[in-house]
Amino acid sequence: MSTQRSDEPEADIKPCHTAALRFFQNKVFGAADAEDLTQETIRRFLATDRTRVDNPRLFILGIARRVLLEYIRRKSKRQTQLEDQSLVEMGAGPSTMVAKDEQERLLHDALRRLPLHLQTLLELHYWEGLNLREISEVLDKPYGTCTRWAHDAKRELRIAMQATGGARGE
Question: DSSP assignment of 4-50, as one string?
Fold first, then answer.
């Protein structure tokens, strides 16, 4: 991994704030919550020893994942394995979805029907441009597990898109 370190906190935060906010937007119960969780993620990042961080963006996304799981635990009525539930099962509404058109809205809806770990993996790959090695670092899971999850996620997304009416003769 290439190392880009700076003594200026803003140099690390500016390119990462948008990624953290985007990470939360399709996973939380309101736009204000997405911003609050982003700020909490940035606060935790600033509290760390950044001289030991090789890739601030991956590090911030890893913090964001942990902040999200804490948030869901606080909001969830059921104390089960959270990452195996979908946001629809947890009761998340569509209030934070930022859909530009119907197809994008259907994609967001289908993603929210996936178990959280699969939704997160797909979003990190397609929206953040991370490869599976980087995703395994963010999710703190073995590379082989992430590879299997990627296959599962694509299959489950295809099924969810068909269920929401989003697939057109694939």
Answer: ---SSHHHHHHHHHHHHHHHHHTTSS-HHHHHHHHHHHHHHHHTS-G
User: Which structure tokens are listed for 143?
Assistant: 């590379």
Q: Is residue 110 packed enough to be buried (19+ CB in 10 Å), middle (13-18) or exposed (0-12)? A: buried
Q: What angle do CA 30, 32, 33 make, to 5 degrees?
A: 65
Give the three-state DSSP class for 49: coil
C-alpha 108/C-alpha 24 separation (Å) is 13
Q: How far is CA 38 from the centre of its chain?
A: 12
Bridge partners of 86, per DSSP, are 115
Q: How far apart are CA 43 and CA 39, in angstroms?
A: 6
Q: pLDDT for 53-112, tens place per residue?
A: 888 889 999 999 999 999 988 887 655 555 565 655 555 544 444 444 677 778 888 898
Residue with tokens 């939380």, as numbered in its chain? 28
End-to-end, the C-alpha distance of the chain in Å comes to 36
Query: How many CB atoms are closer than 10 A to CB 118?
Result: 23
